[in-house]
Design brief:
By secondary structure, the chain is of the alpha+beta class. It is built from 15 helices and 23 strands. Strands 5-4-15-16-17-14-18 form a 7-stranded mixed beta sheet. Strands 8-2-1-12-21-20 form a 6-stranded mixed beta sheet. Strands 9-10-11 form a 3-stranded antiparallel beta sheet, with no helix packed on it. Strand 1, helix 1 and strand 2 form a beta-alpha-beta unit.
Length: about 500
């Protein structure tokens, strides 16, 4: 074999320029500074303090803990510095019908036996008349609903002890914390507005930008974190946008923080269905994050704001922050020498708190496929394929929330229920409804327990259980189920109140 095929690149990346700060920009800066430290390249963040950020990304999924570890940031420090709280999952209120609620936990349900998944036994018992809710077999759900905290163990005795947690945080404080960490790791910060983008005449790649004060900054690799504007990927390079409003028509949001009316909140996010969308409730230490995501075809802006204000628990702490968006993504996430992250590359509404994890996965992909200055198009093609698949998988999961509703007689919800699912989702639905089987796809963000929480929460259950579940009698299963519930109750006795745990993190 040609030994030159394994030679180091003769044209390595020497400079990365990140356009835009906020959560996406500073996540990129800290992650790349840590993971690429051995390459001795320069990293510069250009952001203008005169341009505001969206700043409402307050909820995460458990993958955020891997990000903290990658940048050597301790979870206690994050919780202290960002007024953070714990999140074990999301409570969905009113989605199936107005008087109904269910929980999507970051953990498993029950225990499998003899190679058969637990939910098949649960379906068998349900058919026999046992109405025990699935949530009773989820330690994660029980912790959340009881307002308790228990750290997951590295070596659980069995599947009953398998769960995880994420965090809620003040997005502005989180970005500031990352900014301090990035600068401590050598990242340069330029506070200025970009006036002009310079492209190479031959291949069209971005060469540099001219700032409002006349300075020019050049770079080899550019990370577009400029928000909905998409200054580089959208405006300069002209990458088109793939519009998904057909499946996810909510196109606006209004956010208002408020004072907390209670001393202690449960470690969960709440998503409450409203007449033309839904409302989030995110408990932080110093305030509550509230927002109303809605479809402007079914409700006007003033009414949407009134609905939100009428359903917040305390006094408003700021003026309403109004957002307009189109669900979807750029046709290509990596174009030439520009990679888009965050809102500049696409938007999926925050129903399952995926905005930050999409930034994180984009960074992980970029490092895994890190180019040299030649920008081999095969790397970009791989990156783009994986990114599109990830977006599509999440789109399907979000669409399922709306499509499964039973809120009959409400125009928005009737419309959503009447849509045809994407083909990729229909395949999953068919396998589930026929026999309780889960179809696993490449780049699925949400795994079997998450899909199970949706199917059970919306009471969309298979026509039959697997015959493999008939290895046990109903009497045997009833005894096993009772022991599972007892084991969960015994574990809960070792947990502590969520508020007490957070108080222990405060400096003495």
């Amino acid at each position: 074999m040609d030994s030159d095929a394994f030679s180091p690149s003769s044209s390595p990346i020497r400079s990365i320029v990140i356009v835009g700060g906020g959560t996406a920009g500073w996540m990129a800066a800290t992650y790349l500074a840590r993971r690429l430290a051995h390459l001795r390249l320069s990293i510069t963040v250009i952001e203008s303090s005169a341009i505001g950020t969206v700043g409402v990304g307050e909820a995460t999924v458990p993958a955020i803990r891997d990000f903290f570890a990658a940048i050597e940031l301790g979870e206690p420090e994050v919780l202290r510095e960002t007024e953070g709280t714990i999140k074990y999952g999301i409570r969905f209120a009113g989605w199936q019908r107005p008087d109904h609620a269910f929980f999507h936990p970051f953990g498993l349900y029950g225990m499998p036996a003899r190679g058969v998944a637990f939910h098949q036994y649960w379906l068998k018992m349900r058919a026999a008349g046992d109405t025990t809710p699935l949530d009773r077999f989820s330690l994660c759900t029980q912790l959340a609903e009881r307002g308790l905290f228990l750290p997951p163990t590295d070596r659980p005795q069995n599947d009953l002890g398998v769960f995880d947690f994420a965090v809620h945080f003040d997005a502005s404080k989180f970005a500031a914390l990352l900014g301090r960490l990035a600068r401590a790791n050598g990242v340069a910060h330029v506070d200025a507005r970009i006036d002009h983008v310079h492209r190479h005449g031959d291949d069209g790649r971005i060469e540099g930008v001219t700032l409002a004060d006349g300075r020019r900054i050049d770079g080899d690799l550019w990370i577009d974190c400029s928000g909905f504007r998409s200054l580089l990927l959208g405006e300069a390079l002209g990458v088109p946008y793939v519009d998904w409003r057909h499946w996810l028509p909510c196109d606006r949001a209004v956010a208002i923080p408020c004072a907390a009316a209670f001393d202690a909140h449960k470690p969960l996010t709440t998503a409450t269905a409203r007449s033309a969308g839904w409302q989030w409730h995110i408990p932080l230490r110093h305030r509550i994050g509230n927002g109303h995501v809605y479809c402007s075809d079914f409700i006007d802006d003033a009414t949407a704001e009134d609905v939100l204000v009428a359903h917040i628990e305390g006094a408003p702490l700021a003026a309403p922050n109004r957002l307009r968006f189109t669900t979807g993504h750029r046709a290509r996430f990596w174009e030439n020498n520009v990679v888009g992250l965050g809102l500049s590359s696409g938007f999926l509404e925050p129903l399952e708190s995926t905005s930050i994890t999409l930034i994180q996965s984009g960074l992980e992909r970029l490092v895994a496929l890190f180019p040299d200055r030649a920008m081999d198009p095969r790397l970009a093609a791989t990156y783009n394929r994986q990114s599109v698949l990830e977006f599509e998988r999440i789109r399907d999961f979000l669409f399922l929330h709306y499509w499964s509703n039973r809120r009959e007689g409400e125009p928005f919800w009737d419309h959503m229920r009447g849509l045809a699912p994407p083909e990729s989702l229909q395949v999953k639905l068919d396998a589930w409804r026929a026999g309780g089987e889960f179809v696993r796809n490449e780049w699925d963000t949400f795994q079997d327990p998450s899909w199970l929480s949706m199917y059970a929460g919306f009471e969309d259950l298979p026509v039959r259980h697997s015959p493999l579940a008939d290895q046990f009698t109903t009497a045997e299963l009833a005894d096993t189920f009772a022991r599972m519930k007892a084991a969960i109750a015994a574990t809960l006795a070792h947990a502590e109140p969520h508020a007490r745990f957070l108080d222990r993190l405060r400096p003495a």
